[in-house]
Each structure stands twice: as structure tokens, then as C-alpha cells.
TrEMBL record, chains A, B:
Annotated keywords: DNA-binding
Organism whose genome encodes this protein: Parapedobacter defluvii
Highest classification ranks of the organism: Bacteria, Pseudomonadati, Bacteroidota, Sphingobacteriia, Sphingobacteriales
PANTHER family xref list: ACREF/ENVCD OPERON REPRESSOR-RELATED (PTHR43479), ACREF_ENVCD OPERON REPRESSOR-RELATED (PTHR43479:SF11)
Domain HTH tetR-type: 8-68
Domain of life of the organism encoding this protein: Bacteria
Protein name from the UniProt record: TetR family transcriptional regulator
Ranges of the DNA-binding region feature: 31-50
Length: 215, 215
DNA sequence: TTGTTTTAATTAAACGTTTGTTTAATTTTG
DNA sequence: CAAAATTAAACAAACGTTTAATTAAAACAA
């Protein structure tokens, strides 16, 4: 029953470098030679281990996708105290999920814009659906308890959740990359921004779900 | 004082095709030969008119950027009745701005993820700043009138505005592209989604700005 | 432990394509 | 006739990938 070691050290090294370069410069702007140089392996090793550049990207995707899928399951089974607590918990866990996989999400967001089919397309689709289900469950729970308004839109909320977090992180990175500050300061500011995002997103969602003054 | 005709018919044709292919398949996955074929011109015409593929992208960007900048000016000078009306108007105009330039925004979102410097970088930065100023102005107005809470975050709100609209449109497109429906039905659904987005984003923002039940 | 064989890993070089771009000749336009 | 537009062809560079040769590691028999 023990989990097989899927990738050896060298393979993991290649995948790590590939992820970073794909995320920072884009898949097409990253050559196999770039990856090989930074991973300190021969160019032929990529084909030898992964078959092709496409398959390497796929391997990187599957690798992260598995752990993301697991994260979703954890969130879905979480039992919060109140309806609003559940919404808070979803936001927390979703932000954590993205914050812990920043490089992968940068890559994913970029690729999701042009994908039309194939395994990567399917994976991204599954994640979006999982996110919507998550929001739907929490919303319905609150509605049944009579705490949340009935006229809320799950598709909209899901878009806001994903889009806001993405944009907030992108803006933060965008801003930090062009300031002359130390790495430590960078991480502090990044952390502050994430915490602010957390607080305000919760407040905004709960206000949207519970506010009775707006029509 | 008459506006010079910047681009002749053929140039505009090339730019239109380039924008579409860049947006749909990505800049790097689009070859000059692809553009030339669909625009029904010789490959050499791109270099002849624009200098290079890079410059063509830049020309496409500048072209749209100018009209976007103009749109921002209109929004910034708008005089709504109440503080909430002003917020509503900003959301309306921002959504219209993106909805009317869907291809360009798809391209821009994608490229903004990997740009590190250069003219395109500067343009995108200006747009982000303009958006933040816009939100800031409306928020301060409402706060001075005592209608809005004091503890709201402009950086956060700007991220939510841009991110939510982007994500909503991306999700809608993603979903529609894989349904067997006519173009007319597609447009109807797209329009519905945009209207829902409008309504709910306004409600959410105003709830966030005015709600007094949440801490 | 040895020596031997087999498999896996690693390399430099080459391959065929595609890419963006340029050239030089020709046609169209003013 | 001169300038602009258009073309087919060619160019060098970069790309992903493969090949064939070599080295390192693992497996095995004595």
C-alpha cells in the first residue's frame, strides 16, 4: 500500500526548474535548453525522462493537481460552526491553497486562457467545478439556516473568489518585483497583503450574503 | 487639428487578425505566417508595415490602450448623484470597457503575467493605477459624506473589480466554447452573464462599503 | 569479496522543422 | 516616370527531438 516514488531526484529537479521558468517566462518562451541549463542536466535528459516538452508540462500539472484535489476534499468535508464560519473557512483554505502554490497558479492561469482541450484543460475544468461546488454547498447551508439571502449567484461568487485572489496576488507581485527591497521585506509585505485580502474578502462575502439594505 | 489616419486598411486588417490570434492562441503560438494567411497578405507585409512581430504586438496594444485611456478619463470625470451611484457607475463603465474589448483583454491578461519591463509593461501599469485611482476617488467621496465605512481597502477593491470581471468573462467563455449552441444563443447567454455580474458586483461592493453588522 | 554482464544514465553532436526576417524582383499606384 | 505595395524565395537562428557512443550503476555468478 506504500506510495511508489514517482520521480527520482533528477526528475524532480527538472520539474522544479521547468515550473519556475514556465511560470516566470511562459511555456513557449522557455526552451528545453533553458531548463537543462538551470537544472544542470543535458538537454536530452528531458526527452529521456518525460518524452517531450509537452509531456513535461503535463507531468508538472498532474503533480500539483493531485495535491490540489486533495486540498479540495479537505475543504469540502470541513465542518464549521456557523454558516458564516464555513464561508470564512472556505476563503481561508482557498487563499492558503493558492498562496502555497504561487508558481503553479501563475502557470495555470496563463495556460487556462488558451487551452481548448486535452488533459490540462480537463484538470483546470475540474478545479473550477470543485470551487463552484464548494461555494454552492456553503451558500445553501446558510440559506437553509435562514442566515443568507436567497438571491445570491454561485457562479458569480465563484468568479469573485478565484478572480480576486488571483488578481490580488498578481498585483502584489507586480508591485514588489519593481521595488528595491530585500527578500525578507518582500515576504513581509506579501504576507500582509494576503492577510488583508483574507479579512476583507470574508467581510465582503458575508456582507453580500447577509446584507438586507441593498435590493 | 484633424486626426491623422494612422493605419491604412491593410494595416488594420493585419492588426485585427493579429489581435484575434494572439488572444485565442497566445502570442508565441501565433506565427507571422498564421497572421499573413488569415489576413490574406504576404508574410513580408508584416515586417514591411510594422517592422517586426514584437512591434506589431506593440502597435495592437497602443491602439487599444489609447481608447482605454480615454474611457478612464470619462469615468473619472463622471458626476453621479449619490456616493453609491458613483460606485455603480464605475462598475458599469468598467464592465462595459472590458466587454467591448474582450479579445484585447484576453491578450492583455495573458501577457501581463510575464511582462517585466518595456512599453507594454508600462501601459498595463498605467491602467492598473488608473483603476485604483478611480476606486479611491469614489470611496473617499462616500467616506466624506459619511455613507461608507472608513476601514475599506482600495488595493483590495481594485483587485476584486478587475479580477472578478476577468474571471467571470473567462469562465463564461470557457463554458460556452464547449456547448453545442448557436452563435446567437451564445451571445444571449454571454449578455445575461454580464448583466448578472453587473447587478451582483454592485450589490456586493455597496454591501462591503456600507454594511455595519460585520466587524 | 571478486569479476562479469546487463541495465540505466549521461553526453555531444546532429537532425529536420519552424521561426522571424530580409532580399531582390515585380506589380500597382500616384 | 517615381514611389509604394506586393511577391516568392532565401536566410540564419532557434527550436524540440533523436542518435550513437560512453560512462555509471545495478544485478548476478563464482
Amino acid at each position: 500500500m506504500s506510495e511508489k516514488v514517482q520521480y527520482n531526484e533528477k526528475q524532480q529537479q527538472i520539474m522544479a526548474v521547468a515550473l519556475r521558468l514556465f511560470a516566470e517566462n511562459g511555456y513557449d518562451k522557455t526552451s528545453i535548453r533553458d531548463i537543462a541549463r538551470e537544472a544542470e542536466v543535458n538537454v536530452a535528459m528531458v526527452s529521456y525522462y518525460f518524452g517531450s516538452k509537452d509531456k513535461l508540462l503535463e507531468a508538472v500539472f498532474i503533480n500539483h493537481f493531485k495535491s490540489i484535489r486533495a486540498s479540495f476534499k479537505v475543504i469540502l468535508n470541513h465542518r464549521g460552526d456557523s454558516a458564516t464560519d464555513k464561508v470564512s473557512k472556505i476563503i481561508d483554505m482557498f487563499i492558503d491553497m493558492l498562496a502555497n502554490r504561487q508558481l503553479f497558479h501563475r502557470l495555470m492561469i496563463r495556460e487556462s486562457g488558451i487551452l481548448k482541450q486535452g488533459p490540462l484543460f480537463d484538470m483546470i475544468n475540474e478545479m473550477k467545478t470543485a470551487n463552484r461546488r464548494l461555494v454552492e454547498k456553503a451558500v445553501k447551508n446558510g440559506q437553509q439556516l435562514g442566515v443568507f439571502r436567497k438571491d445570491v449567484d454561485v457562479f458569480f461568487m465563484s468568479s469573485v473568489l478565484i478572480g480576486s485572489v488571483n488578481q490580488n496576488m498578481a498585483n502584489t507581485r507586480y508591485e514588489l518585483e519593481h521595488r528595491n527591497i530585500t527578500k525578507e521585506q518582500r515576504e513581509i509585505i506579501k504576507h500582509e497583503r494576503t492577510e488583508t485580502l483574507r479579512t476583507h474578502l470574508k467581510r465582503m462575502f458575508i456582507a453580500y450574503l447577509t446584507d438586507t439594505n441593498t435590493p
